[in-house]
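User: I'm preparing a small set of examples for a lab meeting where we compare how different chains pack in three dimensions. I only have the primary sequence for this one, and I'd like the structure in token form so I can line it up with the others. Please keep the answer compact; I'll paste it straight into my notes.
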Amino acid sequence: MNNDILYQILNELKELKENQNSMQDQMNDMQNQINGMQNQMNDMQNQINGMQSQINSMLNEFNKIREELVDTKKELSNEISSVKSELKDFREETNTRFDALEDRLDEMEAVNGKRHLDFVKELKELRHSVNRIEINTAENWRDIARLKAMRKYK
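Assistant: Understood. Below is the structure token output for the 154-residue chain.
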């Protein structure tokens, strides 16, 4: 019986040893998994650091673009002011010229009105002269026709 108990104790010790080995294996597996997760976390941290670097680079570029836009806006504002001033001067000069042209046109209309009346008068005189010439021509034709008729009867 002593042997049986010893055998039983030995078996239980073997089982405990196997359990311990199994637990050690499980702990090693868990440690490997933890190490794998630690590596993945390190990789993710590296990726995050890389993304942070890219974001910082993009922010720097954005700030440069913003500065360029501010400069461009200032330049455009100056150009617009200059163009507005030039347009105002041009408008004033154009209005002055148009006023002068209107005055000249009014003067020309008065002169042309007088010329028109003179032309109408001369045209009436020419019509009267043409009518007189036509009448004289008709009388001359009539006289010629009479003379021809008298010659035939003679």
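A couple of notes for your slides: Residues 87 and 93 are 10 Å apart (CA to CA). The chain is about 100% helix and 0% strand.

User: Perfect, thanks.
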